[in-house]
Amino acid sequence: MVPHLTTSLTGPLQELERQVLEQRPEIERWFRTQWREHEAPFYTSVDLRNSGFKLAPVDTNLYPGGFNNLNPEFLPLCVHAAMSAVQKICPDSRRFMLVPENHTRNLHYLQNVAVLKRILEGAGLTVRIGSLIPDLKEPMVVETSAGEKLTLEPIVRKGNRAGLDGFDPCAVIVNNDLSAGVPAVLRGIEQPILPPLAAGWTTRRKSHHFHAYDRVAENFAKLIGIDPWVVNPVFSQCGKVNFTEKEGEDCLAANVDFVLNEIREKYRQYGITEQPFCIVKADAGTYGMGIMTVKSVDDVRNLNRKTRNKMATIKDSQPVHEVIIQEGVYTFENVDGAVAEPVIYMIDQFVVGGFYRVHTERGIDENLNSPGAKFVPLAFETDCHTPDCSGKPGDTPNRFYTYGVVARLAMLAAAAEVEELVERDSAPEVRAANA
Amino acid sequence: MVPHLTTSLTGPLQELERQVLEQRPEIERWFRTQWREHEAPFYTSVDLRNSGFKLAPVDTNLYPGGFNNLNPEFLPLCVHAAMSAVQKICPDSRRFMLVPENHTRNLHYLQNVAVLKRILEGAGLTVRIGSLIPDLKEPMVVETSAGEKLTLEPIVRKGNRAGLDGFDPCAVIVNNDLSAGVPAVLRGIEQPILPPLAAGWTTRRKSHHFHAYDRVAENFAKLIGIDPWVVNPVFSQCGKVNFTEKEGEDCLAANVDFVLNEIREKYRQYGITEQPFCIVKADAGTYGMGIMTVKSVDDVRNLNRKTRNKMATIKDSQPVHEVIIQEGVYTFENVDGAVAEPVIYMIDQFVVGGFYRVHTERGIDENLNSPGAKFVPLAFETDCHTPDCSGKPGDTPNRFYTYGVVARLAMLAAAAEVEELVERDSAPEVRAANA
Question: What is the value of ipTM here, to two decimals?
């Protein structure tokens, strides 16, 4: 389970690691004060990119789907963290209903659900699975990639409570990113829902997250005395794009130009000779759909039909009208010659593990989380929490500690983001519109 | 690192495990509600005895000294739990002063201090060691059993703050059981002290702890529908004993008689054919000193000089005047033919590991924690938190989960106990007497 890592570690990243390690007590104290002001999401995963000169989050998932990829030795860490979350959020709960994605043919995803169930059971909860699969009338048994059996049951709504036949849960834990909208069966129920429904892709926007991250990165950079750019990708956004109709091309071109120029300036400042690039992706959505790599304004001016179709819709056939244009961060990490990016998993405020997403057929400037892609999950050897103080910045445990710090920055941004989404969601005019 | 266990698992214990496992969600919820009312001690270790028909705590240590015996793979669990404790108790702290025992020749104990330091550093604290060694004028470097170097520094008092030369800690963490009294250098300081000074053996009494445990065991037994005796050893106490002067023998005999009769009745009820015994030990104190096994009233009537001397003083030459007479619980667990008892370690409200105290030269009715004794620590294979639901009650992970539950009951009693001690300590008349 030990990943064989080769990384290009020169210049500012070692500097970043050195500063992070030196100021660990200050950093941990800062996190503690932040968690007094913000409630950590129940669980979070963060995709990081490590270019050697920059270590930054590129995606923050509030419905993480890869618990099956974590090192099984970290299961007790997950259980502790889940106990801590339950203690804070809903100490009176005994029964949880877990609501997963509908894709029953992705057996690895089903194994993620099985592991998640085991974590919650380890925390002392009775867990049953409530499915949103349309027309599911009876409990359905499915088998995961590891051969475990799961029973998916139709969710039953009774007045203001959602549950299953003969099972009235105290809380609902959602592992479905709600790309297809907020399901009526869960709307307005009196049980706590984790994360809140407003955190789903119906209302969530990547640009909103990265605005929140701007503030977090700014404060963190001030705390330890670094340039925030080292942990923060430049981004911009376009609100009215229609790839099929070729609408919004000017907005896209202008923003790509802006982002590329910003990167160019930073690269010049730090003496980086790589070619700047950015990633254009749907502002709402996940699963690596609706994503493209752009190296010049021309790249968005002359989109062929194939690319336009690829960008036009994402998961659950949702059309793409809003896009985020994000600084591309090269990944200079590789595992056995294939490009790799670290994914960090957290429950409550704790880092519980991570793995490398590895792609044998992609370049260092491409998105690795793409459908149909081969990827080889590799569990981290250590837990991201306990750096070896005597080691050098580039040593594996220290690298992972720094990953855990940057991932927690993204989680902190997500916490603030979700608070705003919930507040907006409970505003009277929105309630009326949703009714 | 896998302990080879042979246990005699028939009758009520399997029944207890079955009930514990079946009612896990109810139990965990109950613990959550309890931790809303009581603050878990910073750290706790609990000695358990497992007789097959009974699983009970026999000693609860608020200054655990065996972190070096835990499975190193559980270090991340310790770090998480310490982060959780610091978050709750003193989120603003960055610098901790760790105050260990004075015995610098016990290299295993020093290794415990090294591991504890590493755990706290893992939680993001700067840690330095403040020593209570009398006449220590300069920092002293000592080497642990694992060859690690530790610097012990003299504690410096400046007004209402205790610290080290050039180091002003935010909090003081004590790993010294204060058998020799509350050190003047720590008395009345403004920094938080963990655990509070009132939890030291100067003021703490085992009988007080087990009175608190009576209430906890009663409530827990009601919760899951068992006889509280199954998890609770009968006990009594004598307040005015002087072994050297042969004073208090009548009180001791009467209480031994009472405890043995109580056990006899329970053994009859459950059809247990073993011979009842009890353990007489100093009501204040630790390290297995001042302890004897008693099987009849005659055993305390005719104490020879050697035994009287053994019982007369404990650690730091403190005289014994108060004793607790506790039901002896046979240990039917053994590791490679030697008798063994489980010791469970907790930080904050979390079980973080445990080990077997193994004694090759002691019987199943003797105290295993004795000075000069050979014992072979064996790290548990699992974490006591995640039972395998599909397994049978006697299976190792389930056994350990039940251990974790009973140990947490003792910790809960310690929490209530410490609250009372602190309250008593801060009462005006006590303050005046201490001044």
Answer: 0.83
